């Protein structure tokens, strides 16, 4: 941890994701996830997981954030994503939360549209910093349909 501007940006985005986890509707898993997507213009779009009594229909935090982006946000370049989760009020204090496989694909849609490979900050007692291309190599996206 160098304490430089990149660290400050990471810590701020993680704090935003933790706050977003407070909006989770997760009565079945009791696992509250928050995601924060940072764009090149400085805008941030958040999401929280939204579960359903038909369990398989539950939406992950990252997917909710991407739905917000593509439906109401003029997306520029997606530069960073912060993901956190845990028991209510304890996001970031437990195991590292990495985006699930489906969310990697969903995030790739926004990233590829803006031509970026976002850094992914995964919160937890053992945090992970990675990139979307590392989590989803050789991704299929909008560019492949041209
Ligand atoms: N979850 C997310 O919101 N994002 C992920 O990337 C992993 C899992 C949610 C889905 C479900 O509501 C809860 O976490 C437990 O799996």
- The strand count comes to 5
Q: Indicate how many domains the architecture comprises.
A: 1
Topology pattern, helix = H, strand = E: HEEHEHEEH
Determine the CATH topology.
Cytidine Deaminase, domain 2
Task: Output mean pLDDT.
Answer: 95
What form results from the Cα inertia axes? globular
How large is the radius of gyration?
14 Å
Q: DSSP helix count?
A: 4
Q: Please give the oligomerization state of what you see.
A: single chain
Structure overview:
The protein has 146 residues and is an alpha+beta fold. It has a single domain, classed as Cytidine Deaminase, domain 2 (3-Layer(aba) Sandwich). Strands 2-1-3-4-5 form a five-stranded mixed sheet. Helix 2 packs parallel to helix 3. The radius of gyration is 14 Å and the shape is globular. The structure holds tetrahydrodeoxyuridine (THU).
Give a short summary of the structure:
The mean pLDDT is 95. Helix content is 32%, strand content 21%. It has helices at 5-21, 61-72, 101-114, 132-135, and strands at residues 32-39, 44-48, 78-86, 119-122, 128-131.
Explain the layout of strands and helices:
Elements: H1 5-21, E1 32-39, E2 44-48, H2 61-72, E3 78-86, H3 101-114, E4 119-122, E5 128-131, H4 132-135
Helix pairs in contact: 2-3
Tetrahydrodeoxyuridine (THU) binds next to helix 2.
Supply the key terms:
single chain, 146 residues, alpha+beta, Cytidine Deaminase, domain 2, 21% strand, globular, hydrolase, Cyt/Deoxycyt_deaminase, Cyt_deam_tetra
């Amino acid at each position: 941890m160098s304490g430089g501007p990149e660290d400050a940006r990471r810590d701020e985005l993680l704090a935003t994701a933790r706050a977003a986890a407070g909006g989770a509707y997760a009565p079945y898993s009791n696992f509250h996830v928050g995601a924060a997507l940072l764009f090149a213009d400085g805008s941030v779009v958040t999401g929280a997981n939204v579960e359903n009594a038909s369990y398989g229909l539950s939406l992950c935090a990252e997917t909710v954030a991407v739905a917000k982006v593509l439906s109401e946000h003029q997306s520029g370049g997606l530069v960073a994503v912060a993901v956190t989760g845990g028991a209510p009020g304890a996001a970031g204090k437990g195991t590292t939360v990495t985006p699930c496989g489906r969310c990697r694909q969903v995030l790739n849609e926004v990233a590829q549209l803006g031509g970026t490979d976002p850094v992914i900050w995964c919160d937890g007692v053992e945090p992970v910093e990675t990139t979307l291309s590392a989590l989803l190599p050789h991704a299929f996206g909008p560019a492949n349909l041209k």
